């Protein structure tokens, strides 16, 4: 009887509708897309997603480290808006002493940094990503990306993630509270979000290299195969 009851519960569970996890959505068509190749579009979408990932990371870090946003603004939301505006506006971050790119990232992760470490870290990450993409967030046919620079940016994100998880401040405490593993809880959402950024950067870098290689192969195929693929006269 117990086996029959358990089997009935299992059957009922299998028959229930799966939990919805959202739907994939694309951007609405814009005239700018006419000026974009496939690689341009992929790079544009990847950059947008990476900036969104940085915003999610900032929100999570501010929630776990509320003392940091208080160094920048009166609320967490205002601090996030300030950081985002500084990244997209290519402004300097005063606490980083006008440092940009990887120099800003190194300073934001130094143990003796006393400013808003979350804001400085996300700002430096965003500025580094922009620099590796030629200072742009959207790309058209007249733009070109250096695949090696994008690849290097992915490695920089890996290094920054490792430093964030292992480096301590002068008091022997983590620079910022992020991932958390205990007997009662496992929170690796920070690690997953950083992994997404790294994966997108690697894809853009690989696709950029592939685009150049495939163009060369296509040219070679047209030169070699062109004469052989001509139709023969039938009259």
Search tags:
single chain, two-stranded antiparallel ribbon, mainly alpha, 235 residues
Brief summary of the model shown:
Helix content is 59%, strand content 2%. It has helices at 2-15, 38-64, 66-69, 76-88, 101-108, 117-132, 147-166, 189-225; strands at residues 180-181, 186-187. Strands 1-2 form a two-stranded antiparallel sheet.
Any chance you could write out the topology, listing elements then pairs?
Blueprint: H1 2-15, H2 38-64, H3 66-69, H4 76-88, H5 101-108, H6 117-132, H7 147-166, E1 180-181, E2 186-187, H8 189-225
Antiparallel strand pairs: 1-2
Explain this structure.
59% of the residues lie in helices and 2% in strands. By secondary structure, the protein is mostly helical. It has one domain (35-217). It has a two-stranded antiparallel sheet with strand order 1-2. β1 and β2 form a beta hairpin. The chain starts with a helix and ends in a 10-residue tail after the last helix.
